[in-house]
Design brief:
single chain, mainly alpha, Tetracycline Repressor, domain 2
Length: 200
Amino acid sequence: MSETRARLIETATDLFLGKGYGAVGTSQICSTAGVNKGTFYHFFPSKSALLIAAIEKYTKSFEDAFEQIAQSDAAAPEKLAALFEVPAAANRSWRKRNGFSQGCLLGNVIVELGTVDDAVRQASQKALRQWEKPIEPIIAEIAIFEGLHSLDTSKGARCVVSMIQGGLLLAKLNNDPGEISAMAPAALGALHTLSAKSKN
């Protein structure tokens, strides 16, 4: 990836997180990144294409962090709690720099564009599946650790990602990254409930 393309993605990510997609134009992105529009369109045919590239990079950073947790030697419940700490730490860092909790690029985009831009919707669906993938082995460990023999690892991973997203939404609403971490203790109970329903 070229330095200029990477700078455009990083700039756009920060602006989209801070102001929303619709409120940010290509002129502002170019000005903030220090490039002209010709350079912008050399790398991206549209602002939507830039957003999708930003989603992909944003998703990968969290996916890698979740993968590291999955491969760690921590006990299964500790891994589960650590998953929530990844976005909580990102929101704390953002709030320290910008004065407010940014929530989640994916969540923000899904709310803003999920029903009006099919390419962005598909990119967001793919992104959430990427988050689920490294979480599945952690759910499998939880199932063994807790004796949840009916727990479906795929459904369990989706449940955890949904709870992470819920915490991110509350973090943005209340300007409190602690809302994300607060979801972690409830996640284990949710997996127990999911397993019990699978038996019926």
